[in-house]
Amino acid sequence: MPLFDYRCDCGARFEKLVRSWRDADQACPACGRDSHRLPGRVALTGGARPPAGPDQAPTSWEGTGRGDREYVAAWRRTLDRRERLAEKYPELSTKRDAIAAHEGVFEKAPLTYKELAQRSASSGDANQGAAEAGQARKAPSRI
Ligand SMILES: [Zn+2]
User: Fold this and answer.
1) 64 CA to centre of ligand 1 in angstroms
2) What are the boundaries of the region Disordered (predicted)?
3) From 1.10.8, 3.30.360, 2.20.28, 3.30.530, which CATH number describes the 1-44 domain?
4) Cα–Cα nearest to 61, from 14, 12, 18
5) How far, in Å, is the centroid of ligand 1 from the Cα of 114?
6) What is the value of pTM for the model shown?
7) Per DSSP, what are the bridge partners of residue 17?
């Protein structure tokens, strides 16, 4: 079965194995709406393929299922694997960090998966981590 990339209007991106390329667009795991298949990148089951990188990660808070703990953790693991692989294969490396949210309080200083993971480390809760990051954005800088 071919593996396809999908993108939803909410910002979520995901891969799905489908029976054939003629299969209809798939429901988004984050919001449930129909998503759009991205052209190109098709890999057959079992084929070697690097883990998804920052360019494929959801880039909005809604796209992460509003901080869905398992969805965010799965992306964090995927991005970590990609980063480790990029140490061996520089062509896989990406300069910028993947963005987990860019709306609202994060418009000027986007929330990266790295920061989200750091801020969620103690609570284990992505929503709490994002709330902390939001507070940090709002707090007046004390320099
Ligand atoms: Zn969606």
Assistant:
1) 9
2) 42-66, 117-143
3) 2.20.28
4) 12
5) 22
6) 0.59
7) 3
Residue the block writes with tokens 């990266």: 112
Domain boundaries, the chain: 1-44, 51-143
Ligand 1 centroid, distance to 5 Cα (angstroms)? 13
Expressed in angstroms and rounded, the spacing between residue 16 Cα and the centre of ligand 1 is 14
Give 55's contacts (C-beta < 8 A, 6+ positions apart).
94
pLDDT, averaged per 10 consecutive residues of the chain (143 residues), comes to 79 80 77 80 56 85 87 88 85 81 91 92 91 89 58
Q: 87: CA distance to ligand 1 center in Å?
A: 32
State the burial class of residue 23 (Cβ atoms within 10 Å of its Cβ: 0-12, 13-18, 19+).
middle
Kind of pairing between the strands at 99-101 and 111-112: antiparallel
